[in-house]
């Protein structure tokens, strides 16, 4: 089967079968078994926030597939100085075959998709990071051979990366446990969407309980892009949620992190540098997962 959705604003724009199709296509591309050609195709990449992985992996994916990607940072286009999203959408769609956008407001990504008549892919908003989830699921599938009997403990902030992961886990039928400080949990609407897909995550009160049965412990920064003004407040709220050697002692769980990592805050250096980490495989898989997505959307 092929993917019918035209946009990926969050991972549940895909059905469970479509998610599997994208992951299979990603795996085939990674293995050198799929030589789909996207020559003469252009991806416009709109960034309101910084990026190391998303920008580089999308751009590299388009190059390897024979196409081209254009980086449009906040100082490069008029979006950064007040041109409406809906105007940007229609203009870019007149040139590019697809648009990838990293924006603050998720509603802006939805508006971009509504006005662009080419596929729009969310490269992270304050609420969602579906491309990260595709890479995460590819990594877990590679590490464990599938999703059956795998439990992932999410420890930390319940915002964009966590929210898409919870939805992806529900679609993939992957067991997921979530622990966040009070007031930083996964949005209730996202929990409802996960439940409708089949498997809402189990919410537990503390990291120790979350880690108890975990095969993978996954965390993200405590201070997300754009939250610098509430840094002190968040550091104090997240005390006790650090993924460190003490928390993991006696467990053989692997560790995932979407990156960038803030060593000494949500995770310690020794954990990142230990043989528990799946982090660099996860980062590399952004490239393959997005290549799989691009060919499904554009081929
Ligand atoms: N994980 C992730 O999206 O990384 P970047 O912010 O570097 O793109
Ligand atoms: N939650 C983080 C994810 C970075 C990839 C942020 O939004 O900054």
The CATH class of the largest domain turns out to be Alpha Beta
Let me know the average pLDDT: 97
What fraction strand? 5-15%
Which overall shape is indicated by the principal axes computed on the Cα atoms?
Answer: globular
Major sheet: arrangement of strands:
7-6-5-8-9
Enzyme class: transferase
EC number: 2.1.3.3
InterPro entries: Asp/Orn_carbamoyltranf_P-bd (IPR006132), Asp/Orn_carbamoylTrfase (IPR006130), Asp/Orn_carbamoylTrfase_sf (IPR036901), Asp_carbamoyltransf_Asp/Orn-bd (IPR006131), Orn/put_carbamltrans (IPR002292), OTCase_ArgI (IPR024904)
Protein name: Ornithine carbamoyltransferase
Set down the secondary structure blueprint.
Elements: H1 16-30, E1 42-47, H2 53-64, E2 68-72, H3 85-93, E3 98-102, H4 106-115, E4 120-122, H5 130-144, E5 151-155, H6 160-172, E6 175-179, H7 188-197, E7 202-203, H8 207-212, E8 216-219, H9 231-237, H10 245-248, E9 254-257, H11 269-272, H12 279-298
Parallel strand pairs: 1-2, 1-3, 3-4, 5-6, 5-8, 6-7, 8-9
Helix pairs in contact: 1-5, 1-12, 2-12, 3-4, 5-6, 5-12, 6-7
The structure holds phosphoric acid mono(formamide)ester and norvaline.
Norvaline is lined by residues 124, 159-161, 220-221, 224-225, 258.
């Amino acid at each position: 089967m092929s993917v019918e959705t035209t946009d990926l604003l969050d991972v549940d724009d895909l059905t469970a079968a479509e998610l599997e199709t994208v992951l299979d296509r990603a795996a085939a591309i990674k293995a050198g078994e799929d030589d789909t050609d996207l020559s003469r195709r252009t991806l416009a990449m709109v960034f309101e926030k910084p990026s190391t992985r998303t920008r580089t992996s999308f751009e590299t994916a388009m190059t390897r597939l024979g196409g081209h990607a254009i980086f449009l940072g906040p100082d490069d286009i008029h979006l950064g100085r007040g041109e409406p999203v809906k105007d940007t959408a229609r203009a870019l769609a007149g040139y590019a075959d697809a648009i990838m956008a990293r924006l603050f407001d998720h509603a802006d990504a939805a508006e971009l998709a509504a006005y662009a008549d080419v596929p729009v892919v969310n490269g992270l908003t304050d609420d969602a990071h579906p491309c990260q989830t595709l890479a995460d699921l590819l990594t877990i599938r590679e590490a464990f051979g599938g999703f059956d009997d795998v439990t992932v403990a999410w420890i930390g902030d319940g915002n964009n990366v966590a929210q898409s992961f919870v939805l992806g886990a529900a679609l993939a039928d992957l067991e997921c446990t979530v622990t966040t400080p009070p007031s930083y949990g996964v949005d209730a609407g996202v929990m409802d969407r996960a439940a409708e897909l089949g498997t809402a995550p189990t919410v537990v009160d503390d990291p120790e309980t979350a880690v108890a049965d975990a095969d993978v412990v996954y965390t993200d920064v405590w201070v997300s892009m754009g939250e610098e003004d509430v840094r002190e407040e968040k550091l104090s709220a997240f005390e006790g949620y650090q993924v460190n050697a003490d928390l993991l002692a006696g467990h053989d769980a692997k560790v995932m992190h979407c990156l960038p990592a803030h060593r000494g805050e949500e995770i310690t250096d020794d954990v990142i540098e230990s043989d528990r980490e799946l982090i660099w495989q996860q980062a590399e898989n952004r490239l393959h997962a997005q290549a799989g997505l691009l060919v499904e959307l554009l081929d």
